[in-house]
Write a structure and sequence with these properties.
Layout lengths: L4 H10 L6 E6 L2 E6 L2 E7 L2 E5 L5 H5 L4 E6 L2 E9 L7 H17 L7
Antiparallel strand pairs: 1-2, 2-3, 3-4, 4-6, 5-6
């Protein structure tokens, strides 16, 4: 499954100076892991954002944002942002900031 390479480049550029960032293929797209925790990514042509569940409902009210669901179940704390919702640099930076803020406050998932 293909994903928006330009969006991947845009996210990569936003994270270039951050420590402990690596890329991982998942969900048929690309995920940026920060300190070994899923942070932000690209699925098809949408930006996948892992955000604080406490701001999840507010985020869903923003233009271009929708709940992320797999197999018909919404995943609270994860949203998709379409091109309309990340069109300007300010919008894009807002979403990256939400993802990075939450990433700093969560623990690394234990390996199964």
């Amino acid at each position: 499954m293909a994903f928006d390479e330009k969006l991947g480049d845009r996210i990569r550029e936003a994270m270039v100076d951050l420590p402990q960032v690596h890329e991982k293929r998942m969900f048929g797209g690309l995920c940026f892991m920060v300190y070994d925790k899923m942070c932000v990514g690209v699925v098809k042509d949408e930006m996948m954002c892992r955000i604080d569940p406490a701001v999840y409902e507010q985020a869903l009210e923003l233009p271009g944002c929708r709940e992320m669901d797999f197999n018909g179940k919404p995943m609270k704390g994860y949203v998709f942002v379409d091109e309309f919702g990340r069109r300007t640099q300010a919008q894009f930076t807002y979403w990256i900031g939400l993802c990075l803020d939450y990433n700093q406050r969560i623990k690394v998932a234990k390996k199964k």
